[in-house]
Design a protein that fits this description.
Strand content: 25-35%
Radius of gyration: 16 Å
CATH architecture of the largest domain: 2-Layer Sandwich
Structural class: alpha+beta
Strand order of the largest sheet: 2-1-3-8
Number of domains: 2
CATH topology of the largest domain: Glycoprotein, Type 4 Pilin
Largest sheet: 4 strands, antiparallel
Number of helices: 4
Length: 168
């Protein structure tokens, strides 16, 4: 298991059992020490069980970002009830470390297999990670991201793309 995924797993298990957050591991590898946006996804029997993330860093390091977002994915995702202790053995984890978003001029610069997307209209922002099952076209990717943000199909949006390093 990759160290970033192990950190997410250890965080969720400790928080679910004790209500306490773990501290980042000492001697962490380079990837854990840099600053980046991070998404933590939880799946149970192949189905999404929680996913929370930040598209830009909000903490001092990727390891802190993982800890914060792992707890949130397990307890704060509004689509799901908090993870229960008896589910822990059934959960699979993935961690996506995001590159900085870059503004693009249009749909032609997007590819749902290679890039995640952020749509922005005023204060509303929607994000969709790349390479998601069932999201095979730019239009589908933009539609889902817009819907998440409450942005209508006819509204003007600014588009941003980003890459991820995905760890499972």
């Amino acid at each position: 298991m990759h160290p970033l995924v192990k950190l997410a797993k250890d965080t969720v298990e400790e928080y679910t059992r004790t209500g306490k957050k773990i501290t980042p591991p000492s001697g962490a590898e380079h990837e854990m020490l840099k600053k980046a946006g991070v998404f933590v996804s939880l799946k149970k029997h192949g189905e999404l069980r929680g996913c929370i993330g930040t598209f830009q860093p909000t903490t001092e390091s990727v390891s802190d970002e993982i800890i914060q977002n792992a707890v949130s994915a397990a307890t704060q995702d509004p689509r799901f009830s908090p993870v229960a202790e008896d589910e822990l053995s059934e959960i699979d984890y993935s961690v996506d470390v995001l590159s900085a978003p870059e503004k693009v001029s249009g749909k032609g610069a997007l590819d749902p297999k290679e890039y995640g997307v952020i749509v922005k209209s005023g204060d509303r922002k929607g994000l969709l990670l790349p390479d998601l099952e069932g999201v095979d076209t730019v239009d589908a990717q933009l539609s889902i991201a817009s819907m998440k943000a409450g942005i209508g199909p006819d509204e003007d949006v600014d588009l941003y793309r980003f890459k991820v390093n995905r760890y499972k």
